[in-house]
Amino acid sequence: MKIVKVVAAIIKSRNEKGEEIVFATQRGHGELKGGWEFPGGKIEVGETPQEAIKREIMEELETEIKVGDYIHTIEYDYPTFHLSMDCFWAEIISGDLVLTEHDAAKWLTKEELDSVEWLPADIEIIKMIREAI
Fold first, then answer.
1. What CATH number is given for 3-132 in this structure?
2. Is 58 helix (H, G, I), strand (E, B) or coil?
3. How many alpha carbons lie under 13 Å from residue 116 in its C-beta half-sphere?
4. For the chain, how many helices (H) and strands (E)?
5. Local structure of residue 17 (DSSP, 8 states)
6. Rounded CA separation 81/37 (Å)
7. Which of 8, 31, 67, 92 is the S-S candidate for 38 at Cβ 3.0 to 4.6 Å?
């Protein structure tokens, strides 16, 4: 089975009530179109996961981020490939989170994490996020 190595940014902020929130995006293309995920993408040859995540967020969201602590690596078998996804906390340094590849995006509180239909691989990281924020 083909292995796809990717990174995901769990971008944190605070809403007007001071609650911690995370940024979720809805896929705009591909076989998983319409599913909700944390933004990120493939690691290119010669890149560290941290470099890949910074590049991907700049490409997909026109936003510069600071990559924080490593959270977990998700291993998930989709029907046509195996996904290995390194997840990191991240914070916005500059930019306006412009959607260049996604259909939609939302900031979610801990209580709102179940309000979107997550892609299967992202569901495992949701439990960890819920415990951390």
1. 3.90.79.10
2. helix
3. 26
4. 2, 7
5. T
6. 17
7. 8
**In the predicted structure, residue 8 carries a pLDDT above the cut 90:** yes
CA distance 29 to 51: 24
pLDDT tens per residue, range 91-118? 999 999 999 989 999 999 999 999 999 9
Q: For position 99, what pLDDT does the model report?
A: 94
Domain range list for the chain: 3-132
Which amino acid is located at 36 in the chain? W
Indicate the pTM of the whole model. Answer: 0.93
Helix (H, G, I), strand (E, B) or coil at 78: coil
Q: Which residues contact 92 (CB under 8 A, 6 or more apart)?
A: 11, 13, 63, 64, 65, 66
| pLDDT, tens only, 70-84 | 999 999 999 999 999
